[in-house]
């Protein structure tokens, strides 16, 4: 497998900052927002957006962690490690994930969310949209659009779990 860095730490940081500004611009009632990070790296991304919102607007936005494994259509797990300790009914949810590919993870996340309550609105923020959707799902906030071949893989590395911030593309060639 050949790997090449396509996004470095600084560019990744800028993309997260831009997503945060877009969230501020497009959500007038910020007190209704709840960030929900999709495990694993979506949670760290959501935490970074939460920190930026605090720095830029002085806002403390609640954050939950979504485990999509129990709701997947391909493989399933009995244990659900979702932790969302706020009532999501009538709230504006922003789902956060690192990569958007087929859209199946997001479908599972929405399934998990509606089991917990009835949000007013659900938006989606992703660091990378690599295309190849298999469901009618799109992101509202996109850090980087990275056109890929199906055989390639996007690897997002984050300091919190990988020791550094970087986005790589991997291919057999
Ligand atoms: O749009 P999709 O085709 O569903 O792909 C996107 C998902 O794939 C990856 O998760 P993965 O299942 O690799 O789990 P991980 O984040 O825990 O590594 C990524 O973090 C997204 O959640
Ligand atoms: O390329 C991909 C596809 C799904 N999830 C990833 O993290 N990378």
TrEMBL record:
List the ranges annotated as motif PRPP-binding: 93-105
User: Do the record's keywords include DNA repair?
Assistant: no
The Phosphoribosyltransferase domain covers which part of the protein?
4-151
Q: What's the domain of life for this entry?
A: Bacteria
Q: What EC number(s) does this enzyme carry?
A: 2.4.2.9
Gene Ontology terms for molecular function: RNA binding; uracil phosphoribosyltransferase activity
Short name of one Pfam family: Pribosyltran
Catalyzed reactions per annotation: UMP + diphosphate = 5-phospho-alpha-D-ribose 1-diphosphate + uracil
Family from the record:
Belongs to the purine/pyrimidine phosphoribosyltransferase family. PyrR subfamily.
Q: What name has this protein been given in UniProt?
A: Bifunctional protein PyrR
Q: Which organism is it from?
A: Lactococcus hircilactis
- State the gene name recorded for this protein: pyrR
